[in-house]
Amino acid sequence: MNTCRYLRSCLLLGGLVVSLQPMLVWAQANSVRKGTDQQQSLKNRDGQHDFDFEIGTWKTQLRRLLKPLTGSTTWVEYEGTTVVRKVWNGRANLVELVADGPAGHFEGLNLRLYNPESRQWSLNFASSSSGSLSVPTIGEFKNGRGEFYDQETLNGRAIFVRFVISDVTPNSCRFEQAFSDDGGKTWEVNWVAIDTRVRE
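Given the sequence above, the corresponding structure tokens read:
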């Protein structure tokens, strides 16, 4: 009698496991699919309006390290105005910065272009003193922070350049440029700008 009851329990338990197996497989597959969908949506994120927050006029406080990657700690400060205009319905924008300080007058221009295929931005900078566009930094925004990179030459050495846009609010944002001459192991910040929106 006990043996029959034991066998019946085993059969019931085995049947339960077999009947639940498809549900377990479905749950695992659904979990994997959700993770893949989230990764895919991040990968396919359309960033063409990432800079819409910046359209308008801003008061700019700018600090610049005079001689990057030389051990120098001499900074110069400027105050000025930045005007950002939307181009191509947000898929590009034009930034004009005019600033003055003890180190003199500064004028900069940045043409930002969105590549819909790579879903990345290129930031193309020029100063009035050089009159030509620099190597573009390329990157994207993730979780409200923009990171853009390129490789350039400084004093005959190949360096990495990192440009970061952070602390973005409707009325303020921060820009920071840093150089690395050791392959990105360490970074030296050489440009910091804080923008505050001008009420119109």
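The CA atoms of residues 123 and 187 lie 20 Å apart. Try to locate this feature in the token string yourself.
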